[in-house]
Write a structure and sequence with these properties.
By secondary structure, the protein is mainly beta. 9% of the residues lie in helices and 60% in strands. The chain contains 1 helix and 12 strands; from the N terminus they run H-E-E-E-E-E-E-E-E-E-E-E-E. It has one helix spanning 2-17, and strands at 27-36, 44-56, 60-67, 76-85, 88-94, 97-104, 107-115, 121-130, 136-144, 149-155, 160-166, 169-180. The strands form 2 sheets. Strands 1-2-3-4-5-6-7-8-9-12 form a 10-stranded antiparallel barrel. A hairpin with a 4-residue loop joins strand 10 and strand 11. The protein is globular, with a radius of gyration of 20 Å.
Length: 182
């Protein structure tokens, strides 16, 4: 019993302190993002830059991502904060929009849905993983929340029936971000 308590305490304590962004993630990065639709080859590419900086010790970081060249058409800036909340990390997009994030190992992951103006629902998820080389790999993917297939799974040994819905991925954006000096 005493060992169970010690193991539980260590696990609980590690969950509380290990959820901020590691200091090794801070810095500036850039790479060429590949944009995929329904085909297995990219339909376009775009230069992407990402800067992650700690602005409040162990609790708030800037997350500034740009797409394209500053003085050219299509240039886009995404200025967010990653904040440590009592229940984990969140991407603060401003205007009250908070997207919960979770750090699993060396990957920061989120998942959310969007209802478009035409009442269609889409899912999106981003995954930012730190590679052993120190580079960051970023993937953003999503698709329609309308199931492409539904079926039932019968677990005969337990006498239970489960519903299964599958969804089709509609797009993926992928980039390896290499650390740069600024």
């Amino acid at each position: 019993m005493r060992y169970s308590f010690i193991i539980y305490f260590i696990f609980f304590y590690s969950c509380l302190i290990g959820q901020g962004l590691p200091s090794t993630w801070t810095g500036s990065y850039q790479g060429t993002m590949e944009l995929y639709g329904k085909q297995s080859t990219p339909f376009s590419t775009v230069l992407v830059r990402l800067s992650i900086q700690e602005i409040k010790k162990d609790s708030v970081w800037t997350y500034f991502m740009t797409y394209g060249e500053k003085e050219k058409p299509g240039y886009l800036e995404k200025k967010y904060h990653v904040v440590l909340k009592s229940d984990g990390l969140a991407m603060d997009e401003g205007d009250g929009v908070l997207i919960p994030m979770r750090l699993f190992g060396d990957c920061l992951i989120d998942f959310y849905s969007i209802e478009d103006s035409d009442n269609t629902n889409s899912f999106m998820s981003s995954v930012l993983c730190r590679q052993p080389s120190g580079d960051l790999e970023f993937n953003l993917f999503g698709g329609s929340l309308t199931p492409s297939n539904t079926s039932q799974i019968v677990e005969e040994s337990a006498g239970e029936v489960f519903g299964l819905s599958t969804y089709t991925l509609g797009f993926n954006q992928h980039v390896i971000l290499k650390r740069i000096d600024e």
